[in-house]
Amino acid sequence: MSFIAACVQSTATPDVHADIRVLTGFIRAAAATGAGFIATPEYCAGLDTKGGKMFPVAFTEAEHPVLPAMQGLAKELHVWLLIGSIGVRAPDGKIFNRCFMLSPSGAITARYDKIHLFDINLGAGGSYHESATIEAGKAAVISPCAEGLIGLSICYDIRFPHLYRAYAQEGAEMLAAPAAFTRVTGDAHWHVLQRARAIENGAYVISPGQCGTLAGGAECYGHSLIVDPWGRVLADGGTEPGIVTAEIDLNTVAETRRRIPSLRHDKPYSATCLATPKAS
Catalytic: 114? Predict the structure, then answer.
């Protein structure tokens, strides 16, 4: 029940075909290390930013050039491949921030649309309004992956622990959070959030990230991470494009959950506020 997982760390551009070529090189390199599961970042191919808004290059799913390219690679290399996300046109004119899990046959085994959208004012660090162009997803998704099950999420989702708790309660042994985290929030929170989700749920967390400066000036944090169920960082991608790998042993998940069986200790409760509301 063990395999090698790899995170691709890259810097997307508005040229989706150039990005496909870059991703292809990194995915081949990861497969050459023996990786059986390879994950790419959020908006891994085709992305522009302007005025704090995300402008992913978007196509309908049937016409998206990333899908046949990555499906062909998954089949050729016989690997599980997570397309961290790409822009897929929504019926209302907005865009879904959608990830795809591909099996070693090249088939799409799962789709996940990012649920929590990044609408943030960081002061001097800039503001971001993802909902201006992106349509929020409505469904959590657990997918088969290599030897086990993985709960799917994207970037800002990592700040909503109930999503990952639900995944773990439903049997997910791994959690994926591909991202294009900003440098400001990454410096402050990225490692802590990834390790917390791993520790809380006794699960591996596999989070490929974009790095460097995007078109439009947004800076991405990088530091693609693979974290084990005890919260140990097994691989950290630093700040430059490349790949990182680590061994995933799902027996470690079972052992960690035996040692700290908190998934069996959740209790229902009511919330009571004892503070006196301030007069308006």
Answer: yes
